[in-house]
Write a structure and sequence with these properties.
By secondary structure, the chain is an alpha/beta fold. It is built from 16 helices and eleven strands. The protein is globular. The structure holds nicotinamide-adenine-dinucleotide and magnesium ion (MG). The site of magnesium ion (MG) has 4 residues, from helix 7. Its EC number is 1.1.1.267.
């Protein structure tokens, strides 16, 4: 039941946590949304299953070497296989692509996000790391090309919705909520002993491994502060973080008159994904609803900046702009990798990032090329930090 004027969506990172939720949203859209392209880096059996379900025009296997080893026999007739990261950039520019869901994890998603913005597309952005690394550059390009950025991150989706209640100059502050992660109540001694398995078990969200570790260190919230800074063009002084363990209030906007507007729903990424893909419309959703016949307790508390030093790093990167975001983000990606490999303690992730941020050569308005070089430099610095 594909309607002729379906919105044609390219899902980059389709096999990930966000990507798989997007596939469900598209499949349930009664033909309003059509997957025109699906990409994956590995796990191609999963990609082929998705292709059988949604019959896209293209599947993209970004790891070309791994793609050679895969049997593509079961790909549906009419679906063409493209390989290599360049295929992402070619596909997002195609005239038949209306919306690009950027759901690749980390800096690996930067160039395809950039290409989609450059092509003037509507970009549903899950890949927060792209905006952390190159926020001002992406926003400038979006203005030049007439591209629209729609947040998929649940906090930013909530803020985007709440901002509709007032004018830009009527906003006092944004309050990002954070679940606090699995170690919200742990003391400093406990935090030093955290194992990889403990850090991978998140209490309220089911996500990919990198963002799950980020949620445990609160680096995810740090990245989201920087993301909000560029997405909504507000200075760091107007951004705040509150711990809200239930993950029901997804964020809040406080206006100059003191009114606070929030968006609430059970934690389920299918809702913000659907909001971005169906925008400007609201449709019935797969996501569960709040049950207003039941007692419900919502708690809020200020975060502990001592136990979770990542937050200060996020505010600092949001204040400084320039090259601070790309360095913190790349250092964090490398440090998370080291932690998952057992080479770094949980409580060393943030100090490693802070040290690399401290020692980098700051520049206020870098080019994309300079950002990509600094990204590589920061990763090497983390390796040296670990060996030292
Ligand atoms: P994930 O690890 O589950 O999936 C990542 C996807 O990217 C996979 O499809 C993988 O094949 C692809 N990928 C990985 N490396 C790649 C590379 N080098 N080149 C091309 N493709 C590559 O990650 P996720 O949890 O779905 O997160 C995706 C993005 O969405 C991240 O930026 C994350 O911060 C953001 N996000 C996720 C959630 C969530 O609930 N999972 C919520 C908010 C924001
Ligand atoms: Mg989030």
């Amino acid at each position: 039941t594909e309607s002729r004027d379906a919105k044609r969506v390219a899902v980059l990172g389709a096999t990930g946590s966000v990507g798989a939720s997007a596939v469900e949203v598209i499949a349930a859209s009664q033909g309003r949304l059509k997957a025109i392209a699906l990409s994956a880096h590995q796990r191609f059996d999963r990609l082929i299953e998705q292709a059988k379900r949604l019959k896209p025009r293209w599947v993209i296997a970004t790891d070309a070497a791994a793609a050679k080893k895969q049997s593509w026999r079961r790909l549906p007739k009419g679906t063409e296989l493209l390989t290599g990261p360049e295929a992402l950039e070619q596909t997002v520019c195609h005239k038949d692509v209306d919306t690009v869901l950027a759901a690749i994890v980390g800096t690996a998603g930067l160039q395809s996000t950039w290409a989609a913005v450059d092509a003037g597309k509507t970009v549903a952005l899950a890949n927060k790391e792209a905006l952390v690394a190159a926020g001002p550059q992406i926003q400038k390009l979006a203005r030049q090309r007439g591209a629209t950025l729609l947040p998929v991150d649940s906090e930013h989706s909530a803020i985007y919705q709440a901002l509709k209640c007032g004018a830009a100059n009527e906003v006092e502050r944004l309050v990002l909520t954070a679940s606090g992660g699995p170690f919200r109540t742990w003391d400093a001694d406990g935090l030093r002993q955290v194992t990889v398995d403990e850090a991978l078990a998140h209490p309220t969200w089911d996500m990919g491994p990198k963002i799950t570790i980020d949620s445990a260190t609160l680096m995810n919230k740090a990245l989201e502060i920087v993301e909000a800074r560029w997405l909504f063009d507000l200075p760091a002084e107007r951004l705040m973080v509150m711990i809200h363990p239930q993950s029901v209030v997804h964020s809040l906007v406080e206006f100059v008159d003191g009114s606070v507007i929030a968006q609430l729903s059970p934690p389920d990424m299918r809702l913000p994904i659907q909001y971005a893909l169906e925008y400007p419309h609201r449709r019935e959703a797969l996501a569960e609803r709040l049950d207003w016949t039941q007692r419900m307790v919502l708690e809020f508390e200020p975060p502990d900046f001592d136990r979770f030093p990542a937050l200060e790093l996020g505010f600092r990167a949001a204040r400084e702009g320039g090259t601070a975001g790309v360095v913190v983000n790349a250092a964090n990606e490398a440090a998370v990798g080291q932690f998952l490999d057992g080479e770094l303690h949980f409580t060393e992730i943030v100090p490693a990032c802070a040290s690399v941020l401290e020692s980098h050569h700051f520049s206020p308005s870098p080019t994309l090329k300079e950002l990509l070089e600094l990204d590589q430099w920061a990763r090497r610095e983390v390796e040296n930090w670990v060996c030292a």
